[in-house]
C-alpha cells in the first residue's frame, strides 16, 4: 500500500502529527491525555460519542457512478450522491483535517484471504482509531499491507457539513464511493457508522463480484466443527447468543458464506451493554477490560464502576473489543458450511413461537421478510410495539436488491438440504409488550442448545396455525407450557387476533417482493384465520 506520507500528500493534507498503527495502550493513554475518555474500574476506556449515539441511516449515501449506477438498489436506504459533490466535500474534509493530529491504521475486512479487502482508516480521534484496531482484522506485523486495492476511511467527526452547499441532508454524513474506494464520514462520532459502512462495502463487493453471500449474522462452531449462524436485526440476540462457552465464536455480526466456508468480516465484537450482567452474559461482561472501548455508559456515582442499568445517555450503550477477548474465539475466523441456521426475531407482539423449524420455502420467506419488532421508548402511554421488516435481516446495509441475496441463500440451502433452519422468538411470550414478558435468556439458550445438540430431531412437532412453522412440543430444560405461544396467553381470542394482525403485516410487507419470489417461497407465507369459525 501507498506510504502514508504519499497518501496525505495526494489528498493535500498537512497533518500536525501522524500516528501510524498505534498500539492500543498508547491510544488509551492519548485519549486520556486529551480528556476524551476515562478508565472504568476494569480498565476499559469509556468515551462519549456526543450528539449521535446510534447510526443515522438517512444520512448514509452512495456515490452514483459507473460501478454503482445499474447495480445498486437506489431508494430510501441507498441514497444517491453526485460524484462531483463527493469530490468537493472530500476536499473540504481534507482541508479540515489539515493542521490536526491524525491517527492512521491499516487493517482489513474478511478473514478469508480470497475475499478480503484492505482498509486504511484515517481519523482525528485516538479512540476511533482504537475502535478500528478492535473491530477490523489486525494484520500480522510482518504482513502489514494486504495488497493495494484497499479502501480508505476518512473520519472527521468534528467536521460539520453545510447541507445546502454540500448536498447532504444535515451536518453529518457517511458516504461510500466505489470508484474512489473511499468512505467519507463527518459530523458524527458514533463508531457504528465506521463498522457498518465497511459492512455495506462488503455487501456490495462479495455478491456483485464474487457471487458470495454476505450476511448480517453471528456464527459459532461446536466441538464437531458444526457451524451455527444467527441472523437477526439489532437487539434480537446475535451477539448475546453466539457467546457460548461450549462453542467457539467465529464472529458476532457480519459474515460471508462461500461454497464450503463461513468467514467473519471483522476482527472484533460490538456488544450492547444495556443491563449487562456477569451472571447472564459472563463472556461479554468479562471482555470489558483493558483495551476495550466502552461507549456512552455512566458510572455509579463517585466510583469508576460502570452502571449498566443507567441508560441516561442512550439505551444503545456499546462495548468494542477484539474477538480474542472472548476466551473461546476461533483464532482464524473461518468455519465449515453451517449445520444450523437461526433467524432471531424479537417479536414484541408475543405471537411467534420461541422456537420453530422452517421448511426451505418458509426459510426463504422469513429471510426476505426480515421481521422483528421494536418496543416503544419510555414515553408515557405508548405501549404498542412497532413492527420492523428489514429484508435479509439487514436491509439498511445491503446495496443490491434483497432478492439477489435471497437467491444466493436459496441456492446454498438447495445444495445443502441437511441444514436446519429455525425461527427463534427472543421477544415476548404470554402476551405482547405491556402484558406478557420477554422470554428469559436462559430458556432461549436452552432451546438453541437443544436444536444444536440434535435433541429436537426426534420430538413431535405441531404446525403453528397462522405461520405454518413447525413447533417442537418438548424441549429439554424448557417448560412445555412455553412452547406454544397461544397456551401462554390468558386471553385466547386476543392471541388469535394478534396473530392475524401480525400475519397481515407479513403479507402486506411481502407484496413488494412477490413478483420476483418463487412459488416455494410464496408458500412460506402465513395465513389469516377466520377466528369465529375457528372458535366454533
Ligand atoms: P446488533 O445488531 O445491534 O449488534 P444483536 O442482534 O447483536 O444486535 P444483542 O447485542 O445480542 O443483539 O442484544 C440482545 C439484547 O437482548 C441483550 O441486551 C440481551 O441481554 C437481551 N435479551 C433479553 N432476553 C433475551 C433473549 N431471550 N434472547 C436474547 N437476548 C435477550
Ligand atoms: Mn451485535
Give the rounded overall mean pLDDT: 95
Kindly report the oligomeric state of this protein.
single chain
- Number of helical runs? 15
The share of residues in extended strands comes to: 15-25%
Main sheet characteristics: 9 strands, mixed
Shape: globular
Stretches with pLDDT under 50, minimum 5 residues: none
Say how many strands there are: 30
As a percent range, the share of helical residues equals: 25-40%
Structural class: alpha/beta
End-to-end distance: 73 Å
Write a structural description:
This protein is α/β, with parallel strands linked by helices. The longest helix has 19 residues, at 192-210. It has 15 helices and 30 strands. Helix content is 27%, strand content 24%. Helix 2 packs antiparallel against helix 4 (126-135) and helix 9 (360-369) runs antiparallel to helix 10. The strands form seven sheets. Strands 11, 12, 13, 14, 15, 21, 22, 23 and 26 form a nine-stranded mixed beta sheet that branches. Strands 1-6-7-8-10-9-4-5 form an eight-stranded mixed beta sheet, with helices on both faces. The protein is globular. Strand 9 and strand 10 form a beta hairpin. The site of adenosine-5'-triphosphate (ATP) has 19 residues, from helix 7, strand 16 and helix 11.
Amino acid at each position: 500500500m501507498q506510504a502514508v506520507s504519499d497518501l496525505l500528500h495526494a489528498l493535500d493534507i498537512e497533518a500536525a502529527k501522524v500516528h501510524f498503527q498505534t498500539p492500543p495502550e498508547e491510544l488509551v493513554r492519548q485519549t486520556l491525555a486529551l480528556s476524551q475518555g476515562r478508565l472504568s474500574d476494569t480498565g476499559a476506556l469509556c468515551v462519549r460519542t456526543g450528539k449521535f449515539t446510534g447510526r443515522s441511516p438517512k444520512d448514509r449515501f452512495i456515490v452514483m457512478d459507473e460501478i454503482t449506477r445499474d447495480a445498486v438498489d437506489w431508494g430510501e436506504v441507498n441514497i444517491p450522491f453526485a460524484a462531483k459533490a463527493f469530490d468537493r466535500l472530500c476536499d473540504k474534509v481534507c482541508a479540515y483535517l489539515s493542521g490536526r493530529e491524525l491517527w492512521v491504521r491499516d487493517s482489513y475486512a474478511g478473514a478469508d484471504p480470497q475475499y478480503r479487502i484492505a482498509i486504511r482508516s484515517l481519523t482525528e480521534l485516538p479512540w476511533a482509531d482504537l475502535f478500528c484496531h478492535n473491530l477490523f482484522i489486525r494484520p500480522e506485523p510482518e504482513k502489514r499491507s494486504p495488497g493495494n486495492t484497499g479502501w480508505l476511511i476518512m473520519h472527521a467527526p468534528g467536521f460539520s457539513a453545510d447541507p445546502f452547499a454540500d448536498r447532504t441532508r444535515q451536518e453529518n454524513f457517511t458516504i461510500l464511493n466505489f470508484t474512489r474506494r473511499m468512505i467519507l464520514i463527518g459530523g458524527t462520532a458514533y463508531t457504528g457508522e465506521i463498522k457498518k459502512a465497511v459492512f455495506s462495502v462488503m455487501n456490495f463487493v462479495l455478491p456483485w463480484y464474487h457471487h458470495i453471500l454476505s450476511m448480517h449474522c453471528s456464527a459459532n462452531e461446536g466441538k464437531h466443527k458444526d457451524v451455527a449462524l444467527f441472523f437477526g436485526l439489532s437487539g434480537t440476540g446475535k451477539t448475546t447468543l453466539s457467546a457460548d462457552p461450549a462453542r467457539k465464536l467465529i464472529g458476532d455480526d457480519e459474515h460471508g458464506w462461500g461454497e464450503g466456508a463461513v468467514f467473519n468480516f471483522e476482527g472484533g465484537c460490538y456488544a450492547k451493554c444495556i443491563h449487562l450482567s456477569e451472571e447472564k452474559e459472563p463472556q461479554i461482561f468479562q471482555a470489558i477490560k483493558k483495551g476495550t472501548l466502552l461507549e456512552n455508559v455512566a458510572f455509579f456515582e463517585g466510583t469508576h464502576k460502570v452502571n449498566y442499568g443507567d441508560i441516561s445517555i442512550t439505551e444503545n450503550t456499546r462495548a468494542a473489543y477484539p474477538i480474542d477477548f472472548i476466551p473461546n474465539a476461533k483464532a482464524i475466523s473461518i468455519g465449515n458450511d453451517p449445520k444450523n441456521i437461526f433467524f432471531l426475531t424479537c417479536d414484541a407482539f408475543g405471537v411467534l413461537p420461541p422456537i420453530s423449524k422452517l421448511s426451505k420455502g418458509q426459510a426463504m420467506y422469513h429471510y426476505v421478510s426480515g421481521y422483528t419488532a421494536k418496543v416503544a421508548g419510555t414515553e408515557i402511554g405508548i405501549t404498542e410495539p412497532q413492527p420492523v421488516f428489514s429484508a435479509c435481516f439487514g436491509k439498511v446495509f445491503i446495496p443490491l436488491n434483497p432478492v439477489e441475496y435471497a437467491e444466493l441463500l436459496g441456492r446454498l440451502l438447495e445444495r445443502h438440504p441437511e441444514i436446519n433452519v429455525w425461527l427463534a422468538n427472543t421477544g415476548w411470550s404470554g402476551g405482547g409488550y405491556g402484558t406478557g414478558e420477554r422470554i428469559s435468556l436462559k430458556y432461549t439458550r436452552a432451546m438453541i442448545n437443544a436444536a444444536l445438540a440434535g435433541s429436537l430431531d426426534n420430538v413431535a412437532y405441531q404446525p403453528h396455525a397462522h405461520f405454518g412453522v413447525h413447533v417442537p412440543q418438548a424441549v429439554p430444560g424448557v417448560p412445555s407450557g412455553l412452547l406454544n405461544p397461544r397456551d401462554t396467553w390468558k386471553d385466547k381470542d386476543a392471541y388469535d387476533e394478534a396473530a392475524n394482525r401480525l400475519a397481515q403485516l407479513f403479507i402486506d410487507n411481502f407484496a413488494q417482493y412477490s413478483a420476483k419470489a418463487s412459488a416455494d417461497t410464496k408458500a412460506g407465507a402465513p395465513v389469516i384465520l377466520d377466528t369465529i369459525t375457528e372458535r366454533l
